[in-house]
Specification:
disordered C terminus; globular; 701 residues; alpha+beta; 17 helices
Length: 701
Amino acid sequence: MQKRIRIGVDVGGTFTDFVLVDEHRDMIFTGKQLTTPTDPGKAICEGVARIALEAGVEMSQLDGIVHGTTLVTNAVIERLGAKVGLITTGGFRDVLEVGHEMRYDLYDLFLEKPEPLVPRNLRLTVNERISSDGEILVELDEAGLKAASDELVAQGVDAIAVCFINAYINAEHEKRASDIILSDHPDLPVTISTVVAPEIREYERTCTAVANAYVLPLMRRYITDLQEKLTALGLKGPLNVMLSGGGIAALRVAQEAPIQMIESGPAAGAISGAYYGRLTDTKSVIAFDMGGTTAKMCLIENFEPEQANTFEAGRVRRFRKGSGIPLKVPVIDLIEIGAGGGSISRLDAMGLLKVGPDSAASEPGPVCYGLGGEDPTVTDADLLLGYLSPDYFLGGEMSLNVDVVRDAIGAKLAGPSGLDVTAIAAGIHAIVNNNMAAATRSHIAEKGRDPRRYALVATGGAGPVHAYGVAKQLKLNRFICPLGAGVSSALGFLIAAPATEGVHSYVSLIDQLDLEKVLKIYQGMSETAIQSLVEAGGDVNTITIKHRVEMRYKGQGFEISVDLPDDLTGVNLPQLLKADFLERYTELFGRSISDVAIETVAWRINASGPTPNIQLNFEGQQIDRGAADKGERQVYFPETGYAPCKIYNRYGLAAGTSFAGPAVIEERESTVVAGPDTTITVDDHLNLIIDIHYSQIKDQE
């Protein structure tokens, strides 16, 4: 494989992370910048220029930048997107509000549903009708369509979404509608549902089309501006993006279907967790990525993150399934909660200490940053407890003020509650750990698994600080902290393969399947996927395509996914599908029913190129490697209170080193905290393998 020099950029709510990988020298360089929320491109360009300079690389030498951002998900959650109009089939104007017949809380008389992204006055209908088998029953009323689009433009919409009933089986009317609208309004962004979600289920397909239109103008402006700024810096290579499913795609995807990037940053963290699971030969991993604003947890089995085909955005109740906007988008299956270094602490009306989900982010930031933040955060508590060094945050580039933190916690939390400052700081740390552990425990329980058989891989700027507490809450025996953990999501962009997915709905009983039609469906999706991957820099000769199908018992409301062989020619498809479905159903639910009709719902492909082979060599980084021993400072642990604790320089720890906790291990982008009941070992890849010995606690008791 050709050697390249690339940069991964992860734009978070508090920090923007950078990793440069130079495959010619087998070297990695890392960096962090405070995110500039009003102009994210500013921090990106400053960080890219800086890391290239540190690596001794000219911008023109870069073979590309891979980029992920929270801009899409923030726009949906905070309702900062465009003014959108919806054109749909007559009689289906209120699909967005009707939603599902199911209530996410049966007993809540004041149930709050997510507000539609398009108000009713901007939802218009036209006459047209396609049957469930694709037959055109009523031709598209083109004059009515022109009148509807003109009316929406007159009302000042920034984008239009088009979603017609049963268009997933025949997209002719949607394509024609797009052509008509663009001929009259060529600069108006238009999304048709069959481009972003060409599959069955009207509500989800409409939501996905509308959400894409909602963020489309914003992302087009952002991408255009970013590309111009990077080109001005001298970048000649492509700017690619990470999709929510963990694959790398061409920039065109972000400009046409940005909704596919709604979980791009968290996906990169999961990819990184899987990579370190493989590196340490740990098959069952909880990828734990905690940054300044949010924490993400994903289960990794056999070195692969779990996948899902639907994602809920902007939930009214954060942990309540069904309370958000359902999007038909391939995503890595993870949970995300408002628990980060910037999560704000407060006393509620009952005088109880609460943490998050709102964050101080980068502006104004935690109190200790000295940038105007006044509300105590998790980072402030961690500093006061001795976990963070006031003089070595970001490798010493940023000083943290302990005194103002003590004053802020005293005035806002300790005084009103009647507790001392240390108790409040310890409470903040414990509460945020408990919040993350509880969410992880629920996620694992939903999948019927035992958390104790997993190891935690901690990444993100705050992840290694809190990994010890979270691991103990989950009764895990081991957690792993990679070198450069604070920017591991940015590394995830560079170790991910170019990949894309395709889907086509074809509902049929398995004994009535048309094999020729199935082969034609797969061929069409494969050709489109290959074209997309080549556009993203992939080699057509190295692309692998995997097939699967979603199936259910006839009459069921939900499907399960079944893998298919690469070559279906000459296969007794009904027999194969039945056997594989029953086996998978039994695996998931412990039983199956052999005499009930089975039907297919959606046919999918996953196309991917080879995974980049990156050597983890940080030797080129301009860091004072020095001695491992940095002395001691007072650090708080529940078992000991404040006590002297050894502080280590992460860059001075050689492979094979082993020592007992308690310990704080500092590196430029993050800090690892290990309690008094741990043993820390440095493996051959300079990962910290931290084992927790619960028997020590019992002996003390």
